[in-house]
Fold this protein.
Amino acid sequence: MNLIRTKKFFAILLISLSFVASCTKYSFKQTNVVYNNITEKTKFSITNKDTSNTILSYRFNEAKIKDYIKDFKTYRYNEDIANIYADAILYACIKYDIDIDIMLSLIKFESSFNSLTVNKNSGCIGATQINPAVWTSKLIEVGIIDKKEDLFSLRNNIVSGAYVLNHYMQKTDSMDRALQKYYGTCNYASIYSNNVLGG
């Protein structure tokens, strides 16, 4: 009788521990990351407490992002940079409720994963091509950046891009129209939106 009770106890304990492990959440802590010889201070690093992704989904999505970047032929793959991309994209997508595939596609079409690119015509900066003339003040106000130059930080730029896209999503209630506004008012905006949504 005692043996049966012991087996039941350990079975229940094992199920409980499995459930707790699957429900472990993620939170964000301040860390320093060296990127392009610059130490980036960021609050966008993910730890093992208090966000919306379970361990399983975090690991799956992290691998998915890295594979996407690795398979992108015009991008010179680097594991350290891929880690920064994965961390920043996961944070940004959780915080601003954006599909990871859309964020990856947006970065692909905006910058080809070149985080230091600057558009000579518009002045747009970085991986998500943020227009500093339009967005710097707002991004400072909401605490994503402290100054325009912070947009050259890969993490800050990706989070800024997610914020801007979420802003347009709330205004339009449509990802298609949000992407068109993200691109700007021109004839190519609808084609851009279709391209991003198509991957």
Remarks:
- Confidence is low (pLDDT under 50) at residues 13-53.
- The CA atoms of residues 110 and 128 lie 6 Å apart.
- The chain has eight helices and two strands.
